[in-house]
Amino acid sequence: MKKIKLGFRNKKSKSLLIGAIALISVITAGNCQYSSAAVVNNTSAIQDASGNSVSEKENYSIPEKSKIVIGKTVEDKGIKVTLSDCYADTHMLTFTTHLDSKERGDYAQELKPSISINGKIINNETNKFKYDYIHNDDGTCDIVTHIYLDNIDTSQNLNISIDYDRIGVTSTSNIDSYVTGNWKFNFAIGASQIDKPILAKDINQTLVIDGHELYVHNIKIFPYRIEFTGGSDIDSFSDTTDMASWELTDDKGNKIKESDGHGSDKSIMLNYFVDTTDMRSVTIIPRTSFNNPDTAYPRKFPTISNYDKAITINIR
Known about the structure:
CATH class of the largest domain: Mainly Beta
CATH topology of the largest domain: Immunoglobulin-like
Oligomer: single chain
Strand order of the largest sheet: 1-10-11-6-5-4
Structural class: mainly beta
CATH architecture of the largest domain: Sandwich
Helix content: under 10%
Low-confidence stretches: 1-6, 9-37, 39-57
Number of domains: 2
Largest sheet: 6 strands, mixed
CATH superfamily of the largest domain: bacillus anthracis domain
Strand content: over 45%
Shape: globular
Number of strands: 25
Number of helices: 3
């Protein structure tokens, strides 16, 4: 299956690189908004601050304690599509789709869904879609979709319709194509199942580091997700190699892995999927990598974690 995965996955890897730069560097987002994609293998792993191995699939999947199980499967054109589970808080909807086209002899790994919530058509321009692609060792693919709900009333039940009318597949010859078919799902999330923020705090601090201003706007902490909004005075369209980014750690010093984000240089919202139910505090650490004109080309800009400028937010 390694060869089969090269097609759409190669394209997604480019998106991952772009998304990673955008998340690591506040400057990369520029003045345009974006959505990003991440590609992971079931078997790949990361380590927390204590050196413990954490699977990437676990990192991108909906936490077990928060997921709402759906478990509906629709098969058409030899492709089995399963809407596995979902999660919602007042700002984001997340759901997992399992693709299986092994019987066709190709590899399904791309979705183009049409989505509506309470009769309202959802699109990437207003609600910002984000996908995490998990390539399983059995030749199937899980896609975790995240949709921002900024313009959706989450105080009421959410009636959700998803139509996967096109699915991207990669052949054994590594040729990409789309298969049209009928994969439709309808499900509801009750208002009582939608998580509300544990803490929503406006910070509104400006940190001055080496002549640059870094902005710490606000943070929202949900039971299974953190939203952090920061920014800087760096103009990504100017001829500069200066970079600013953010690192979040929990009360035990473990780094919290960012997932995606959108916004501009001055205000970029970053997303972190993490279980916060037992977390006592979050520390926001500004990170900088500034140009040293005295360094010979190719210049190396060490990234510095400015712990002296860190801000700790108590949750409970």
